[in-house]
Amino acid sequence: MIVLKSSVRGGIMAVVLAATAVLAAGCGSGDTAKSSTGPEQLVGLLHFTPGAVDGNTVRGTWFRMVQPGGTPENGPYMPNGDSPAQGGSTTLLAPGTAGGLRVGGYQSEPKPGFAQGNSLSDSITKPTRFFAVEFGVSTNPVDPQTQREVGPPTVVNNDGKLTADLSAWAASWNDQEFNQGAPKPPEKQGAQVAGSEQVRKVWDWVAHQWFDRPKSDAAQGPSATGTYDPKTRAFTLQWTSLIVGGPFNGFTGVWHLEGVYEPDPATPTATAQEPHP
Questions:
Q1: d(CA 214, CA 206)
Q2: Which residues pair with 179 in a beta bridge?
Q3: Is 84 helix (H, G, I), strand (E, B) or coil?
């Protein structure tokens, strides 16, 4: 029988413990790698939760307008006399006829887009009163205000953190158009013409027709960001966008979307491809 001195036994034990630690660390790293799915493109419907307020707490989907010199977090906000939420500083939004925002396709402004100043864009959000006139939201291959070509909304999930290109997000109000996207397309510089390289097609869920996917002009500024829970598919998205032109020139829109993501193909079913008569 071999008898080891205490100093030798201690050395062996130290080696064993070190090896165990290395194996444990390796296993932990592998688990982490397995749990990380990496960037994932979300395609389908972001179904909105209607905005609601309880005291100082606002939930769901809403809009605020920051006055020049203010901040998105603290305002001051332009009060909307038609909103009962937080003294009018917050305008609550309800889902439109589609239930929310289509990702990977357009929800264009109808033609005509207005009736007595009120927006007729009702696919994404329900037209909402703002200073006695209803505003709506649409996404279009050519932005109605800047006349720049913009891609359809895209959202990428990276382990629960969302990054979205919503440069096509357009608000219409009082016979006027306002790009409220993030990032924003460059300011108006004349209408763009589709080029020969635009071969991919994008479906418009309002006009029920295909558009050539435009080669978007370089958008500017930060993207919309948010959160995503893969278990419940609950999401949030928020961004700010400078208002250019009109009576609120220089103000900043703050948009907050909240709801549940519903995966869905980017293209419609065969029966839905028939254009409106």
A1: 18
A2: 170
A3: coil
